[in-house]
Specification:
This protein is of the alpha/beta class. It has helices at 51-75, 78-88, 110-123, 137-148, 179-192, 210-216, 233-242, 252-258, 262-265; strands at residues 6-9, 18-24, 27-32, 38-42, 46-48, 97-99, 103-107, 127-131, 152-156, 200-203, 220-221, 267-268, 276-278.
């Protein structure tokens, strides 16, 4: 086996497809292919992912992208739907122009980031995406936030509960692979902007310490039930906030209905949307 191979863990019944990121002696560092899970396993416990599983993963990811495009299109504010033909022709309608919330997306996985940026583009969400290892996210945000001036920040990558951690120890940040790094990044973002409606923060990955992330200042976080979350779930929340009018509150029921992991995987607080309409309309080039 080599770096980049797709594998499953025999001891877990091959439940998750991983990509081998690195090796340390006879241990492999693994990153989930369709879930934001970071794990390690002995090389002896790994076997190549079956070809049919890999093909099904690609189909599932494509289907998920298609579903998100459909859901977001249906949930766009009515004036945007009316303006869609003009927007596709390269200019806004004569009556108004639209300003969806701007996203700064920090991701600890370059493959997920690439998929996310493509989907942001399809959904017409203005977004800047940066690949940043989780341990460097707080430092990078110190520099990027004053430059980008986002309305929404996504802080995600991979996480997981360490091996052999007992249930009573799951309230300790030291029991997680990256939750402390995510908490540090959220605190940095919240120091930059304290108002949770002026800067909406979406943070976490698989099995992340939900309570610590919210207490640090996140609006939305994973994972209340310490479960696996789908790779694109943070993006859906960001897009939903970006296209919810500022006079409206983002409905958690809508978010939970359309994310893969539901209430066990994602939670949050009442938050206003970031979408604005302006008048009069003007041409864009």
């Amino acid at each position: 086996m080599k770096q980049g191979d797709l594998v499953v863990r025999k001891s877990y019944g091959g439940d998750v497809i991983f990509k081998i990121q690195d090796f340390s002696y006879q241990t492999a560092l693994l990153r989930g292919v369709d879930v934001r899970l970071l794990a390690d396993a002995s090389v002896a416990d790994l076997s190549p992912a079956p070809e049919n599983r890999i093909a099904r993963h690609e189909e599932d990811m494509q289907q998920r992208c298609t579903e998100m495009r459909s859901v977001m299109t249906k949930s766009l504010p009515q004036p945007v739907k009316q303006a869609a033909p003009a927007a596709r022709s390269g200019r806004q309608s004569s009556g108004h122009f639209e300003v969806p919330g701007k996203v700064l997306h920090l991701d600890g996985d370059p493959n997920y980031l690439r998929k996310s940026m493509g989907l942001y583009g399809d959904l017409r969400v203005p977004a800047e995406g940066i690949y940043v290892p989780e341990q460097n996210m707080a430092e990078v945000l110190t520099r990027l936030l004053p430059q980008v001036h986002p309305d929404i920040v996504v802080i995600t990558g991979h996480d997981g509960i360490l091996k052999d951690v007992k249930d009573e120890d799951t309230q300790s940040l030291s029991s997680y692979k990256n939750s402390q790094n995510f908490v540090n990044a959220v605190r940095t973002a919240r120091k930059y902007e304290r108002n949770r409606d002026a800067l909406v923060i979406i943070a976490g990955a698989c099995q992340s310490h939900f309570e610590a992330l919210l207490q640090a200042g996140a609006n939305y976080a994973s994972s209340p039930g310490r479960v696996l979350i789908h790779a694109l779930d943070p993006l859906y929340i960001a897009a939903k906030v970006a296209f919810t009018p500022i006079k409206d509150t983002v409905q958690m029921a809508d978010i939970l209905q359309h994310t893969m992991s539901g209430l066990e995987g994602l939670g949050g607080i009442d938050t206003r949307g970031s979408y604005r309409l302006g008048i009069p309309g003007f041409k864009t080039y």
